[in-house]
Amino acid sequence: MKDKTKAPLIASTEIDIHFYDIDAVQMVWHGNYVKYLENGREAFGSKFGFEYMYIYDNGYIVPIVDLHVRYLHAIRFGEQIIVETQYIPCDSAKLMFNYRILRKSDRTVAVEASTIQLFMTKDGVFETSTPEFYRKWKKKWINSSI
Amino acid sequence: MKDKTKAPLIASTEIDIHFYDIDAVQMVWHGNYVKYLENGREAFGSKFGFEYMYIYDNGYIVPIVDLHVRYLHAIRFGEQIIVETQYIPCDSAKLMFNYRILRKSDRTVAVEASTIQLFMTKDGVFETSTPEFYRKWKKKWINSSI
Amino acid sequence: MKDKTKAPLIASTEIDIHFYDIDAVQMVWHGNYVKYLENGREAFGSKFGFEYMYIYDNGYIVPIVDLHVRYLHAIRFGEQIIVETQYIPCDSAKLMFNYRILRKSDRTVAVEASTIQLFMTKDGVFETSTPEFYRKWKKKWINSSI
Amino acid sequence: MKDKTKAPLIASTEIDIHFYDIDAVQMVWHGNYVKYLENGREAFGSKFGFEYMYIYDNGYIVPIVDLHVRYLHAIRFGEQIIVETQYIPCDSAKLMFNYRILRKSDRTVAVEASTIQLFMTKDGVFETSTPEFYRKWKKKWINSSI
Question: pTM here?
């Protein structure tokens, strides 16, 4: 039997850089990468059945509580980027992702990033134990029983 | 008795232009002015007791259905602008505003604009007759009985 | 011989709506459509050899001087839109485009819009006569001799 | 003699939260805080004579190479925030800032953040030694000789 726990869950999505993404020094404005990371999470959700609306329909939103971005290489107008979003398994009631953003033409790494999200009920309370629907999702995709 | 109908209702607000507002050709990106117009409407709401939340608490949202912007003069990094927002009275169930955006330093007119908003219930239905709370507001501020 | 003057020049591009495009009343924030219109012009430029950088390399930028947007139907999270950008021929030194933004799933028209751009030299002077490179482009694509 | 090295350099600026800052779950969208940090750096530059244009006129841009944001408390429509930006002295050719973003009404800490910037020449080369103009600025403000 294949051990799912060893296969990292990664989704990849491509984004065109537009004029409005570029700042006064002719590079993508650094804050725009936060949008691209969100694109990456959406692509992950689509690929692995963990969309924002699926989470919401199960009673939760998943606000970002930690964001770390390292900028390695500037991206410019007219270029295309690839956002790779990798799910990082952990035992607590969190969503952790690592990201790489690559320039498509030559796969130069432009950005490395990570985010942590918590589960919050619609009443605004942070969930401290793993929600049941998330436990099932983990069981299915990473063979986790926690 | 003072005839309120003749005094235009105008609110004015100042905005600093930041690095992230500037585009690749060193001007404020044209789409950002839509934000400044929203700032202008918020300033109008504060001054004349017609805030977004007041409208919402009365059961409505007021989506923009028409936006017209004429760009007359570019604004640059580090400049300050003044947004003047004028209420345009009309008899139907609409909110109409005209705007002027001026460079603060010399009052050069950078942008002229106008918007039209309709009243929509929270169920997503456009209201065709003037909502009662808006009728009262108009009575108070522009001496209108319609 | 085919009469190029009768075939409208239209480019079409698809855009995914992301979480960050959505406002507090669960619709695409109205100002974001200005980005989508820019996407439309970029798609037009790619299809018909009139990219921003081509214009720039010929000595010009083409700032928006007039923007008109009519909002007909709200777009929501997770939907896809199609931006159709049509070149409107005119005899003066202008770029005029009309746009339709459609919800992809059922082709409901969400937005109709138009923009006017002028040719500005890199020194910031508006060009009153048609630049030579634009004249050639018009000759090629719309069989215009003006 | 007052020991400048012990007095932290901190600038503070206030920001109104607008409708367009709010996301579909009624909070400030997490990516917008990157703008507020930029506001904070601009306020710091104004207060301590280290504006973006001053840096630029001395031959450099200072791109962000590292961004870390911790989100502690959500901010909502109509609230005001205070961004406190503190310069963190270091001996290498870097700019390091720590930030606190507070809700103005009750000084709840909404966000803690830090950024690192490097000095890049206009030719796109990172400077490894401290630029002379920055050395002078440090001498003046933090009594540093490095």
Answer: 0.95
Residue C64 in any domain: the answer is: yes
Task: Return the SS3 of D46.
Answer: helix
Domain count, chain D: 1
CB D42 within 8 A of CB D35: no
Best mutation target among B16, B41, B44, B47 (most D Cβ atoms within 10 Å) is: B16
Residues B24-29, mean pLDDT to the nearest whole number: 96
Q: What is the CATH number of the domain that holds A69?
A: 3.10.129.10
The model's confidence at residue C143, banded by pLDDT at 50, 70 and 90, is: confident
Give the closest residue to D129 by CA, choosing from D138, D139, D119: D119
| B35 touches C: beta carbon within 8 Å | yes
Max Cα distance, chain B (Å): 54
Q: What is the DSSP letter of B92?
A: S
Predicted local distance difference test score (pLDDT) of residue D6: 64
Is 50 exceeded by the pLDDT of residue D42? yes
C-alpha to C-alpha distance for B96 and B73, rounded to whole angstroms? 24
C95: in domain: yes
Domain containing A86 equals 7-141
- Residue B34: its H or E element: helix B33-48
Q: Is residue D26 helix, strand or coil?
A: coil
C35 vs B contacts (CB less than 8 Å): 31
Nearest CB to D38; choose among B18, B38, B39: B18
D79 touches chain B (CB under 8 A): no
Spatial separation of the C-alpha atoms in residues B83 and B106, rounded to whole Å? 14
Give the residue among C111, C123, C53, C120 at the shortest CA–CA distance from C85: C111
User: What is the Cα–Cα distance from D85 to D10, expressed in whole angstroms?
Assistant: 5
Q: What are the backbone angles phi and psi of residue C24, rounded to the nearest 5°?
A: -70, -15
In sequence order, the 6+-apart residues with CB closer than 8 A to the CB of A46 are: A11
- DSSP code at position A59: T
Among A18, A38, A51, whose Cβ lies nearest the Cβ of C42? A18
Q: Which residue has the tokens 């936060």?
A: A34
Residue B145 belongs to some domain of the structure: no
Q: How far is CA A113 from its chain centroid?
A: 9
Residue C3 lies in a domain: no
- Tens of pLDDT, residue by residue over A120-139, are 999 999 999 999 999 999 99
Between the alpha carbon of residue B125 and those of residues B61, B62, B92, the distances in Å are 10, 11, 16
Q: What angle do CA B133, B139, B143 make, to 5 degrees?
A: 160
Q: Which two tokens stand for residue A54?
A: 């699926």
Q: Does residue C92 contact residue C110 with C-beta atoms inside 8 Å?
A: no
pLDDT at C89 over 60: yes
- Contact between A95 and A88 (Cβ < 8 Å): no
Q: Is the pLDDT confidence value at D1 over 50?
A: no
